[in-house]
Design a protein that fits this description.
single chain, alpha/beta, 14 helices, eight-stranded mixed β-sheet, 20% strand, five-stranded mixed β-sheet
């Protein structure tokens, strides 16, 4: 930082004046009095990169005047933008402006016992570092002015809370906008979903799963109600049997369409999305001081422009981007091989962010937050620094050893060797584990085993014969045709002949459920055993049913097809690709 960027006449770097408060685990900006000087952090810039519906950047107040916190767009008082948050921001600002006891340079703060916000992939990582300090309304203004936010178009849940799991969709696009990116080929790309990771954080915040979705996966792209960049609203027609990566960019599709596609594919509700482009990768890896990687062999990839020798390297900027884009020189030379080295890279990035070298460096933390807020696009529900900070603190306790990277199980597409299709024998199990919040690591193994045993105990008892089971089948939010699919399977393959398709349920359910009377418990056990229903799916009534009365089976969004168990397995299939974030793996 040059002399003009100094925050005080004495030449002290503002980054060195962010002091760790051991009581809160947050950094606070503490400046000594300086006549006529603003307390705005140095190094700020008005440079803006083009993006859809970017928030207009508020101006800092003149010296001696009170700056105001920017309101939400359109006068909304949404999360993070209401009166209470503004009052809290002012309070923080007052504390931040308090004179320090001395003008000497602050000693390097020791790492707090309270863990900082976990940074997990690409831009998400830097966003979450904001959890370590947003003291002062000028800081709030500065970072808020950087953020680009677009609509979820109703595709996401619209929030997150402490009492449930969190699902964030991280999308890396292949859009070539920005300085130095035109040489990568396909300069006219509209920005497809080139790298997509569904990041699931458990309800108890002890573990997480990062599920990579191959860009060349053949799946159904649904109809997508969309608000375009110019404000126009329209419904973009879906594409049956299309490539997953065309869920973004193609035919004006926005990130909300990728959210819808992921939900239809996996049955998992997505809360939020974050989108990163090539520039985000370059700026974020540079801000953190480089990411360590290991190569089991020399790499010389003419397409990605990556040329590295065997061994360990620290990559940032252009080299980091080239590493993430390389595929012809690793593994089998496919996109699946590229996904594996991307996961290894992101694991290393997480370890770097959790290190003392980063957490105790206000300069690095500031640089990361600056780079992230300028480089990424987020959904409007988290298009505010306060919301991003809250999200980061929710994830603060997850240890990298309990974060599992894995990939949607796929098989080669026999009709098109350039694409892949779902492995129907393994993918439903993986999706079910994420939906049911089952850890891919050994976290809380004993607790989960106890819960499973309790479920099994509930299901014990006599079971009716299949021929004696009576059930009406409703569709309560499952894919179209599911009730008939289930009925055909029950009658033709399981012998449940006393079953009826009742079409759509009076109202949708969040997950499949079976309602039965006490005197139908033996029938319920038989049906639950056939369909792989968990104990939580069984809903007994308080009064007995008539002899000819059927049970009621309502299929929810978790139902994919008859025969696929609806209860999550205790562990992931043994032969799926996976790696924990704390393990350093050399790219082969």
């Amino acid at each position: 930082m040059d002399a003009q960027g100094r925050g005080r006449d004495e030449g002290i770097d503002p980054a060195d004046q962010w002091v760790l408060n051991p009581d809160t685990g947050d950094y606070e900006l503490r400046l000594t009095a300086s006549s006529g000087r603003s307390t705005a952090p140095a190094g700020t810039s008005d440079a803006r990169t083009p993006g859809p519906r970017r928030r207009s950047k508020p101006k800092a107040a003149p010296p001696g005047e009170r700056a105001s916190v920017p309101a939400q767009r359109g006068g909304r008082r949404g999360a993070g933008g209401g009166r209470g948050d503004r009052d809290e921001t002012r309070k923080q600002g007052s504390r931040a402006a308090a004179p320090a006891a001395t003008g000497r340079r602050k000693a390097k703060p020791r790492k707090s016992g309270k863990k900082k916000a976990l940074a997990w992939t690409g831009g998400v990582l830097a966003f979450l570092t904001l959890g370590v300090g947003t003291a002062g309304y000028l800081v709030y203004q500065h970072f808020n002015g950087n953020i680009t936010a677009v609509s979820t178009d109703g595709a996401g849940t619209g929030g997150f809370s402490k009492d449930r799991a969190i699902n964030v969709l991280v999308i890396g696009t292949d859009k070539r906008t920005g300085e130095g990116n035109e040489g990568y080929g396909d300069a006219g790309s509209v920005g497809h979903a080139d790298t997509t990771i569904l990041f699931h954080v458990s309800k108890d915040r002890t573990n997480a799963t990062a599920l990579s979705i191959p860009r060349d996966l053949i799946t159904d792209i649904p109809n997508c109600p969309t608000e375009l960049e110019n404000g126009e609203k329209k419904e973009i027609p879906g594409t049956p049997g299309g490539r997953f990566n065309t869920s973004l960019g193609q035919n004006d599709r926005m990130p909300s369409c990728t959210m819808r596609t992921v939900t239809e594919l996996t049955g998992i509700e997505v809360d939020h999305f974050m989108v990163a482009d090539f520039n985000a990768v370059k700026s974020l890896t540079t801000a953190v001081g480089g990411v360590d990687v290991c190569l089991a062999k020399d790499i010389d990839d003419k397409d990605s422009h990556l040329k590295l020798s065997q061994g360990e390297h620290t990559l940032q900027g252009e080299q980091a981007l080239a590493f993430l884009r390389t595929r012809h020189s690793v593994g089998f030379g496919s996109d699946l091989s590229r996904i594996e080295i991307q996961q290894q890279f992101l694991g290393s990035l997480m370890r770097k962010l959790k290190s003392n070298d980063t957490l105790t460096s206000p300069t690095k933390m500031w640089s990361l937050a600056e780079a992230a807020t300028k480089a990424l696009t987020v959904d409007q529900k988290i298009g505010d620094i306060n919301q991003l900070r809250k999200l980061g603190m929710e994830l603060a306790s997850v240890d990298p050893k309990n974060i599992t990277f894995t990939t949607v199980p796929v098989l080669d597409n026999l009709n098109d060797k350039a694409t892949v299709v779902l492995d129907e024998s393994k993918a439903p199990q993986v999706f079910s584990m994420v939906r049911e919040d089952v850890s891919f690591t050994a976290v809380e193994k004993q607790e989960k085993a106890a819960a499973k045993a309790k479920e099994q105990a509930k299901l014990k008892g006599e079971m009716a014969e299949a021929a004696d089971v009576r059930v009406d089948v409703y569709n309560g939010g499952a894919p179209a045709g599911s009730a008939q699919n289930a009925l055909d399977w029950l009658q033709n393959e399981q012998g449940v002949l006393k079953s009826t398709n009742k079409a759509n349920a009076p109202e949708d359910v969040k997950k499949t459920q079976l309602v039965y009377a006490p005197n139908q418990a033996d029938q319920a056990r038989r049906l639950a055993d056939m369909m792989g229903l968990s104990a939580s799916a069984l809903k007994p009534t308080t009064t007995d049913a008539g002899e000819m009365d059927p049970m009621t089976l309502t299929l929810g969004p978790d139902f994919t097809k008859a025969g696929s168990p609806l209860s999550a397995p205790a562990k992931a299939p043994d032969d799926i690709q996976r790696v924990e974030a704390d393990k350093a793996v050399c790219a082969k």
